[in-house]
TrEMBL record:
Keyword RNA-binding: no
UniProt GO MF annotations: diamine N-acetyltransferase activity; protein N-terminal-serine acetyltransferase activity; protein-N-terminal-alanine acetyltransferase activity
EC number(s) on file: 2.3.1.57
Domain N-acetyltransferase: 17-179
Pfam entry (one): Acetyltransf_3
UniProt entry tagged with the keyword Repeat: no
Protein name per UniProt: Spermidine N(1)-acetyltransferase
GO cellular component: cytoplasm
Gene3D superfamilies linked: 3.40.630.30
Record key words, sorted: Acyltransferase, Transferase
Domain of life assignment: Bacteria
Length: 192
């Protein structure tokens, strides 16, 4: 068991992006994020999502992942404000699944991409990861574009695979290996 470290990159003139352990006062931002239609459409956040759930997420669920080494989750903090959660879910044997979701206020700023670069650098260096996998419901172009920017290679579509509120949705899957360049591997093939 180890607590979440604090990670940051220094970029002059840019917002301060920090990955850190979740705190009780992140509950309000987490609650707001989970009311957002895109978060509800593309993640399996419970519906309705209550303030109690948000409190449990930041005080129990996320710290619990560090306690049992099942998920290394970080709060994304931008200029001192809660802006989302990013994580690596430990799949064992040097493998992890990347997961991310941002509060609407920070979208379109590039902060999520910076946070995910910090997360991946940390996971490959400090958890000896060899392969990180990304899954998304088909059609989630915002998530796919971020993964593409980070250097993930699209492996294809898996039919009826991701559980989503009682059904199985078709899924896109992509991978990033420890030695892969962290830049797009192909021309962008989605909508612009
Ligand atoms: C995925 C997410 C974290 C990305 O954050 P972000 O990078 O700040 O988001 P943006 O809105 O800037 O979208 C990223 C890019 O996708 C593009 N995009 C967004 N929606 C799109 C759509 N429906 N079709 C095509 N492109 C789209 C944006 O234009 C942007 O491109 P650009 O950077 O070239 O301008 C954020 O959208 C989110 O929290 N979504 C809900 C939760 C989620 O889907 N999590 C991932 C589950 S796999």
């Amino acid at each position: 068991m180890s607590p979440a470290p604090t990670l940051t990159d220094a970029r002059e003139g840019a917002p301060v992006v920090i990955l850190r352990a979740h705190r009780p006062d992140d509950a309000q931002g987490s609650y707001e994020q989970c009311q957002d239609p895109l978060s509800q459409e593309w993640t399996t956040v419970p519906l309705p999502y209550t303030r109690e759930m948000a409190h449990g997420f930041v005080t129990e669920m996320m710290p619990g992942g560090w306690s049992d080494d099942s998920e290394w989750g970080f709060a994304l903090d931008v200029d001192g404000r809660y802006a989302g959660t990013v994580s690596l879910r430990n799949e064992g044997d040097g493998r992890a699944e990347i997961a991310y979701g941002s509060h609407p206020w920070v979208r379109g700023t590039g902060a999520v991409e910076r946070a995910l670069r910090l997360l991946l650098d940390w996971g490959f260096a400090e958890r000896d990861l060899r392969t990180v996998v990304w899954w998304a419901n088909t059609g989630n172009w915002a998530s796919r574009k971020v993964a593409w920017r980070l250097g993930f290679t699209m492996e294809g579509t898996v039919r009826q695979y991701l559980p989503h509120r009682g059904e199985l949705r078709d899924a896109w899957v992509a991978t990033l290996l420890a030695g892969d360049p962290r830049e797009p591997r192909t021309a962008w093939d989605g909508p612009s």
